[in-house]
Amino acid sequence: MTCHECGGETFERRTVEIPVQVGPYRVVDRSVVLPVCKACGDAVIPAETHEQVELRAALVALTDAPTMTGPTLRFARKALGLTQTELAGKLATTGESISRWEREERLTNETMLRQAVRALLMERLMPPTKDVELRKVG
Length: 138
Ligand SMILES: [Zn+2]
Description:
By secondary structure, the protein is α+β, with helices and mostly antiparallel strands. The protein has a single domain (11-125), classed as 434 Repressor (Amino-terminal Domain), CATH 1.10.260.40. The protein has five helices and two strands; from the N terminus they run E-E-H-H-H-H-H. It has helices at 47-64, 70-79, 84-90, 95-102, 110-125; strands at 11-22, 25-37. The protein has a two-stranded antiparallel sheet with strand order 1-2. The protein is globular and about 50 Å long. The site of zinc ion has 8 residues, from loops.
């Protein structure tokens, strides 16, 4: 392994601080441990780690921020990898309604929409249960 920044070859595993801009907020993630270049402190964040960081940032913003802004909803939707129509399908609403929300034209029913998007984020952050099965006993 060679550092992209300085060509250094010595790395140590450390907690890295990853700031993420979510709408008007900044979420700082300190839960990631990565190999960090000992010479310059540079760390490469793998794509799948970045995906998880964005999902967590969206969840924290939707949980701790006093209101869900349009840009916050857009960030959460993109972290989930969904189009406006796809998100609308999961929430039993229309793409137009999601689009208006993201443009902050309609800020009613915030609580329900916020809870529904949080549930989708939590579902994505949970480990899959594909190797666990239910069997009837006796
Ligand atoms: Zn380096």
